[in-house]
Amino acid sequence: MSEEFRHIVRISGTDLDGAKKIGYGLSKIRGIDVGLALALVKVVGLDPEMQVGRLSEGDVSKLEEAIRNPADFGIPVWMLNRQKDLESGKNSHIVGSDLALRVKMDIEFMKSVQSWKGTRHSLGLKVRGQRTKTSGRTGRVIGVAKKRIVAAAVAAARAGKGEEKKG
Question: What is the residue-averaged pLDDT of the chain?
Answer without folding.
Answer: 86
